[in-house]
Amino acid sequence: MPGLPTADPYLPGHGDPSYSVRHYDLDLTYVPDGNRLRGTAVLSVVVLDDTSRLVLDLAGLAASKLRVEGARLKKWSARSGRLILQLDRTVSAGGELTLTIAYGGSPQPVIDPHHGDAGWEELEDGVIVAAQPHGAPTWFPCNDRPDDKATYRIELSAPSGYTVVANGTLAQKRRRASVDTWTYVMDRPMSSYLATVQIGRYVTTEHAPGLTTIAPPDADLAGSFDEQPAMMAFFERVFGDYPFDAYAAVVTDDDLEIPLESQSLSTFGRNFCSTDWSQVRLIAHEMAHQWFGNAVTLRRWQDIWLHEGFACYAEWLWSEESGGPRTCDEWARHHHERLASLPQDLVLADPGPELMFDDRVYKRGALTLHALRAAVGDEAFFGLLKAWATERRGASVTTSEFLDFAGERTGADVAGLLGPWLYETALPGFPQG
């Protein structure tokens, strides 16, 4: 039997490059008692390369029934957290198929030796889904690769008393007996790792139209999450219009070590309800990901700096804008000094799976942008950020594409300027304007 495909070397055993999913329709039911999930997923697929086999990612849950429209399903099997669908003939590139998968079980996080655990996780009373980079298959069958963007409809039924939050806009909520059914629609392209559901006993605070915090009733949002309207106004000024229809911050009743990024929403623990800069900066960081990471998304995991470096730089910008502890340039100098004292063994544009979430990727990525800003000036730099976020919205991008785009926009030799920051291990000197 031929080996199973890998779409990205940073994430072995995930993704099938022979096809793309255009739309996911998920119909789910969750029972907290016993952590039981059952669902039906309908995937609208287009074939990219001639193939008679499709491989889906589904980890820890059992498929019970599969159906294919557009070709005949010869047989299917489950192996190594994946579903292998063998068709009775080769489907040519451009062919369209519809896959329907019924499945269920008790979802659990998956553990990767490089990235730790990710995916569906029970809380004390509720659920979080933190899928970056490999956790999406813990709750729905998918083509789990970052460059495969699709639209979504997510419907989830849960006992009344729980609030269900998912990507996009709430299209419908209905009650039958003691069960509420929530339907969310994400009509902008989204990578599988950015899809999420959050379930808890929450109330919703609307800060502004389309801008909410969903949190336990007694959560104190003052000085932290109630700063989001000002953050949003500032980021729209420097990055361009917010790329989705709404934005929500979900605050769990549990403490969380780090926030969780998803498209059109972010998830935080109760410990982030704090006026301390170490927590507030991450509220800004996750919001900035809506532009850099969610609307404009890496094509390959090696280019993670295009997400984390930009969001980290947004923290420094917000610190200066809001009268925080340091100006942007002061943060840059502070972290340059720190990086200079750390091992010089990281290539920013290809850090390897072991180091892709190393803090040096975040800080060196932000310093790379600071170097570009120092070289081209504020007007050209912020014009570039806004154009990149706007013109590449919905796209999957690479570092080389950013360098080409930046060079065309600014007229500078951006590839030559940023080459040492991106492709050499030694830390360049502090950027001088």
Automatic annotation (TrEMBL):
Q: Which GO terms describe its biological process?
A: peptide catabolic process; proteolysis
Reaction catalysed by this chain?
Release of an N-terminal amino acid, Xaa-|-Yaa- from a peptide, amide or arylamide. Xaa is preferably Ala, but may be most amino acids including Pro (slow action). When a terminal hydrophobic residue is followed by a prolyl residue, the two may be released as an intact Xaa-Pro dipeptide
Molecular function as annotated in GO: alanyl aminopeptidase activity; metalloaminopeptidase activity; peptide binding; zinc ion binding
Provide one Gene Ontology cellular component.
Answer: membrane
**Which domain of life does the protein's organism represent?**
Bacteria
Gene3D superfamilies, sorted: Neutral Protease Domain 2 (1.10.390.10), tricorn interacting facor f3 domain (2.60.40.1730)
Name the coenzymes or cofactors required.
Zn(2+)
Q: Which residues cross the membrane?
A: none
InterPro entries annotated for this entry? Aminopeptidase_N-like_N (IPR045357), Aminopeptidase_N-like_N_sf (IPR042097), Peptidase_M1 (IPR001930), Peptidase_M1_aminopeptidases (IPR050344), Peptidase_M1_dom (IPR014782), Peptidase_M4/M1_CTD_sf (IPR027268)
- State whether keyword tRNA processing applies: no
Q: Which UniProt keywords apply?
A: Aminopeptidase, Hydrolase, Metal-binding, Metalloprotease, Protease, Zinc
Entry's SUPFAM superfamilies? Leukotriene A4 hydrolase N-terminal domain, Metalloproteases ('zincins'), catalytic domain
Quote the Pfam families the UniProt record gives: Peptidase_M1, Peptidase_M1_N
Task: Spell out the family assignment given in the record's similarity comment.
Answer: Belongs to the peptidase M1 family.
Q: Which PANTHER family match?
A: PROTEASE M1 ZINC METALLOPROTEASE, PUROMYCIN-SENSITIVE AMINOPEPTIDASE-RELATED
Give the protein name, as stated in the record.
Answer: Aminopeptidase N
Instruction: Give the species.
Output: Nocardioides simplex
